[in-house]
Amino acid sequence: MKASVSDQNNLIELQRIDTAISSAQHRLKNLPEHELIAAVKKREEDSKVALAAAEAELADVKIDLRRSEVEVETVTDRIAKDESRLSAGNASPKELEQIQHEIATLQKRQSELEDGELEIMMRVDAAKAIVQTMQSDLTGLEQMELELNVRYENAKSEIDREIALKKSERTILVPKISSELVNLYEKVCGQTGGVGAALLLGNMCDGCRIQMNAIELDRVRAMDLEEVVRCEECRRILVRI
Ligand SMILES: [Zn+2]
Fold it and tell me: Which of 48, 149, 196, 211 qualifies as a cystine partner to 185, CB 3.0-4.6 A?
């Protein structure tokens, strides 16, 4: 196949554009924010599970506290009733003795229950503190996710702009090259992972970085400049400079 020197030079320019596009696409796919956002989301999920468990624990301790408060109220009410019977002054001496004894027993019970209530209140405070810490951890993670999303969107739109620019350069350049050469280039690109054309630098193909032997180099050098040369090793279109 033959192609003008200008077509061959434009083909190298096309290769530069395509390499820039695929490199930008690679960067887009591998933005560090991808993994960071996934990691933060995983931590959020774990944090939500732990928060739900802490909230359930707090609800349980609050029920214990309410039960304890009712027990204390019941005993306090009974003491008040006994005391009012005492102060009414119409009980027999034996009944009075019984009531006083009952009051003493109830007061001992009241004191025990109040100690228990105090202990449960401390457990409620501790459970509340845990819930608050977990809520603020979760809020922090959600904030981090928002910031990472903004960073990701910024990086993405910058790369998208770069790709759009390169694609418009490509659209302008392609019609300047013979379609036969472009078709060959596209075919080789498909076979070589995106690099279809390379420069011959000295005696080395810039595509596969393999040096030509002297005989092959002489043969290539003797060829007409408009002859389309392919690298014997990688089959890429070799453009001589
Ligand atoms: Zn090569």
Answer: 196
Query: Measured in angstroms, how far is the CA atom of residue 16 from the centroid of ligand 1?
Result: 16
pLDDT of residue 241: 83
Q: What's the CA gap between 56 and 54, in Å, rounded?
A: 5
Q: Name the maximum alpha-carbon separation found in the chain.
A: 137
Q: Ligand 1 centre from 165 Cα, in Å? A: 29
User: Is CATH 1.10.287.1700 the classification given to domain 31-175?
Assistant: yes
Q: Which helix (H) or strand (E) holds 196?
A: none
Q: How far is the CA of 179 from the centre of ligand 1 (A)?
A: 22
Asked if CATH classification 3.30.110.30 holds for the domain at 1-26+178-241, the reply, yes or no, is: no
Stretches where the chain sits below pLDDT 70 are none
**Sign of the alpha-carbon torsion through 109, 111, 114, 119:** negative
Q: What is the reported pLDDT for 91?
A: 85
Residue 197: its H or E element = strand 197-201
How many A from CA of 207 to the centre of ligand 1? 5
